[in-house]
Amino acid sequence: MQKSARLNQELIFLSDKKSFNLQDLMNEFQISKRTALRDLEALEELGMAFYSTPGRSGGYQLMQTKLLTPIYFSQEEITAIFFALKAMTIMSETPFTRSFSQIRDKLLKNLSDTSKVQVEKAQEVVVFYNIPAVSYSGNLDQLLQAILKDRVVELDYHDKKVQLQPYQLFYRDGYWFCAGLDLLTSNWWNYRTDEIDDFKLLKSLKAPYSRDELAQFAEAGDKIARGNRFSVDLTEKGKAHFLRNPYPNMQLVENKQQLQLIGTYNKHVFDFLVDYLITFATEIHNIKPDELRQAYLKRVLEMLNHNF
């Protein structure tokens, strides 16, 4: 391991400690006592504050400071960070109030001219294409804070009052969803955030469940959502379409000459599943069960009647 990489790892290793001794570094990084002492000198130059304590049980005490110890990245790691930021800028809305372009500009100012040129060249030759948010939510940052701070929110959703303990935000096909437990009905659901009306934080109401308990509700809700089984046969193009746009409770099964998409559904997601299968066009056949096949054929006829 190069010295710069080792120093970076040592900074991370010591970041959550109050004290340490030389042997800790020697054991963790398989280095000699002489190398460990040289590394301590280099760490001090990088801004890590500590002092030595004499005696047989002595060592080093880290001084608590609000100053961030600098972390050093390789050029490859720097480029990867900027690619991650570039991927996020494609999304027109995120739960974070600070724009990613601002973060990018701030990081660029701290790079050397050589590093800037390499980052900008790499970003010119690799392009991300993704689905931007279809509609604006306006409440993502509040939902994120409610999740992080274990708070309860009240909202109107499809003309119903919901007292929600939110668990997770996720993004799919141009829409943000918030998974959580409705405390009024004990039902678990994924709420489209752009369809939430009259959102407010209930400051006086403490969240009754821990993250682990909410995870159990999520697992139970997932089992309920499974309900009925379905299967469709796929072509090779159909397989590629699924791999580009996979969904939970669905999996690809390959048996010799046959490609199958199998999964589960219930009444709440039935219409969505029909619309999802429509996106495969002519690359699926042999849809089972019959209720799903009939609904699929009905939707195709509706499309034909509408367009012709």
Automatic annotation (TrEMBL):
Domain WYL: 139-200
Occurrences of domain Helix-turn-helix type (ranges): 6-61
Pfam families: HTH_11, WYL
Family matches, as InterPro entries: CBASS_pafABC_assoc_protein, HTH_11, WH-like_DNA-bd_sf, WH_DNA-bd_sf, WYL_dom
Domain of life where this protein originates: Bacteria
Gene3D superfamilies registered for this protein in UniProt: Winged helix-like DNA-binding domain superfamily/Winged helix DNA-binding domain
Protein name per UniProt: DeoR family transcriptional regulator
Organism: Lactobacillus pasteurii DSM 23907 = CRBIP 24.76
